[in-house]
């Protein structure tokens, strides 16, 4: 039996953005247009005002690319009108958001973030992070970071389930029940998940591991197409048994 999204619901899941506000802006406009032009496969079973659209961001919104500030601003305050008013929006946490929040809190390993794309993020907020004391950088960043951006980062979830699909940033640990998954695995795991052929009882939709094209396996779908280096940002569209992709 094919995995299903419940009747009357359509899901748009977007892979790792990594600071590419330009691509995200175009993709969101394309998604808004797609939702407008797609009334749903089972309108008699859909909500009163049409199909329920759900937008899921799979994490790693920030770092590496040039405009992480623009990405968070777009999602916090400048979504296309249709998406802002009519979509359920789910924000999932990626490992880069974890590192960014550790930096804001002043964790001992805060330097790890700077070496993994954090410098580009600070620069997108108008900061010069080079040859600076890390405590000084942290204090300045707290002042520069808008409250709306911080609120968005704080409300991110680690996983979300709809029908026969589970959405996470990196993946899950095979052999461990979903409710017992370690939070670090959900944002960091790679090979033990990617190489697994285990039937999880649902299909995992994830980002985190770059591929040239969406990777479809019986137990998972990976949609990180490396936007920050490839210039290709991918969204997976799920409705009923249907799967399709929107890219920009």
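-> sequence recovered:
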């Amino acid at each position: 039996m094919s995995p299903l999204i419940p009747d009357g619901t359509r899901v748009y899941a977007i892979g790792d953005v990594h600071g590419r506000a330009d691509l995200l802006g175009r993709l969101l406009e394309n998604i808004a247009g797609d939702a407008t032009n797609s009334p749903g496969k089972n309108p008699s079973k859909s909500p009163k005002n049409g199909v329920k659209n759900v937008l899921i961001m799979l994490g790693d919104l920030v770092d590496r690319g040039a405009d992480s500030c623009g990405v968070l601003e777009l999602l916090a305050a400048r979504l296309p009108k249709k998406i802002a008013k009519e979509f359920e929006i789910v924000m999932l946490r990626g490992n880069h958001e974890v590192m960014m929040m550790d930096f804001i809190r002043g964790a001992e390993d805060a330097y790890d973030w700077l070496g993994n794309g954090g410098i580009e993020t600070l620069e997108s907020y108008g900061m010069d992070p080079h040859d600076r004391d890390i405590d000084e950088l942290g204090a300045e960043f707290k002042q520069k970071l808008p409250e709306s951006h911080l609120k968005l980062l704080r409300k991110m979830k680690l996983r979300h389930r709809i029908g026969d699909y589970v959405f996470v940033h990196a993946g899950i640990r095979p052999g461990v029940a979903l409710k017992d998954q370690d939070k670090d695995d959900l944002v960091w795991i790679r090979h033990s998940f990617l190489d697994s052929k285990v039937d999880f009882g649902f299909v995992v939709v994830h980002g985190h591991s770059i591929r040239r094209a969406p990777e479809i396996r019986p137990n998972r779908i990976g949609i990180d197409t490396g936007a920050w280096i490839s210039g290709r940002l991918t969204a997976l569209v799920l409705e009923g048994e249907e799967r399709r992709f929107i890219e920009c």
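The first helix runs from residue 21 to 37.
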